[in-house]
UniProtKB/TrEMBL annotation:
Matching NCBIfam families: VI_chp_6
InterPro entries attached to this UniProt entry: T6SS_TssF (IPR010272)
Superkingdom of the source species: Bacteria
Designated name of the protein: Type VI secretion system protein ImpG
Amino acid sequence: MVNQRFLELYNQELRHVRETGREFAQQYPDIAARLGDFEGISDPYVERMVEAFAFLTARVQLKQESAFPQFTSQLLRCAYPNWGSPTPSMAIVAMAPSRAAAGLLEGYAIPRGTRLSSQSVPGIDGVCEFVTAQQVKVWPLAISACRYLPGRPQEAAHPSTQAKLEVTLEANTGADLTRMRIDDLCVHLTGADDVAGRLTEQVLGRSVAIRVSAPEGPEPRRFTELRLDALAPIGFRDDEAMLEHATAAFAGYRMLHEYFAFPQRFRYFRLAGAQLAQAIAKHAVNNRVNIVFYLSSSDASLAGAVDRDNLLLFTTPVINLFQRRTDRILVNQLATEYHVVPDRRRPLSYEVYDVLSLEGYAADANDFTRFAPLFAPADAREWAPSRAMFSLRRSPRLIQNLSGAQAQLGNYRYSDVFVSLVDRDNVPYRNDLAQIGGDILVTNGALPILCPKGSSHDLAMTDSAPVDGIRFIAGPTEPSSALAEGDTPWRLINLLSLNYLYLHDQTEGAAAAAVKELLSLHALLVSGRNHAHAQALQQVQTRVVTRPYPGGGPIVYARGVKVDLTFDEMPFGGSSAFVLGLVMQHYLKQHAHLNSFVETTLHGLGRKDIKTWPAQLGHKGLI
């Protein structure tokens, strides 16, 4: 695959040699008469020399043009850590507790970062690996029933109640619900996009009360009302991130990137706390208990459309992004950079996402030099007395020998990563090194879309756990290739100053255009997936407000910014803009400084005030 810009430069150089050569020959016929004969070259060797000269000079020009984008891309990665890397395949998987889990009264925690292997990919000698994005706590229970009931219920727990969602938990055979300490339930909302999206809005946006009670019976029902802060969304904390995220980088970009790559990963809610565990044990009857969400609005489209299959326990987002050691690379003192190859035996089975660490080894293998990344956020630097550093360059893979099953992946553009050994002044590092190696993050490229799925054992866990089977319930998504340079870096640079204070200084139209550009760029990172969601933004309004300072203690007033976002919900295909609004609310919260706050309200065209989130305190330092 030839770079189009290289072809343009080649033709330009070839035309230049022929035209200027003819002029030079006419001006100095005694010494350069042969330079004027390019049009009718009969000697094939001369013609090849001219074309080879144009080829080499075009390559020199292309290298010169790419020098500045390489510099800016390295700096941009400090602010946008994932923009220059491919977006890996993502999925949601469900784990089925084994019969051996019946005695797990405290549950069994499967930690974040657990590796899962797919079945053998047809036509490929190997499997794909996925990594869990959040902890999964497995209990010997299941959701046996779920009903969405529109209309004001008789036992309305709140004056504004207009509907309720009733979920029944039931212990598995041999388990005792009254003895379990269920203090953490993570629930994934699934099904058709319109149903799952509206149900997410109802639970996370409309809940005004939550009660735990015994299943219906002849006696008056008793209940325990949970605190509303027991309910929370999932996917916004750093320990729930799918994409690798440096601590010093801005977390809001990661959230937007994940939304446009895989919006289903935010259709989660968590019920947690000691009060939940006590209430379930207290009200369980015949190994069953009800959890009822009382909602402030009614959605008639959900009546009869919600059942137990729309709420799933023991699921987690997974991503085809994992760590491994690179093959050792022989050091040549004449080389300026080295190709990072994860596995020389299967080069098309892996694609390098990032280089985490690099070590250089001397010929006697008794000593090694640790290299730190030259361009990296401050917390990632490994400052040491040594000046040994490394920098990265990514370029499209030029040769793709795809055959058989791999031929189906032709639309995916693989890339290669090259590493240069430099010192802190970015000049070549010289030492008596014989080899280099290190830890890298890799993906399986486009192979995950070929993974077999549809059985109860789509994936296998590398560690032992009380789980009978793991299956895909959403995805794997199609990965997105690393972005070509183009004008994307300049568009990203323009957004470095974007925050809620910047929006407040703009006119209403300019603020909406800036946020729409932000959303469109993150859609571009995933090949334009869900780009219509970015274009659905219609208005952004900001104003300074004064509110009681959130939190406990004496009443203190603080100044903050109220942001109103208005979306056209037509591009969401019958679903709701709520999930994108939820992501934007957390994005804006990340911008707020200490002793200030952001209050976000989401509107839809034709339906006002979808959700107003409480004022969110800032934790960002002023300096």
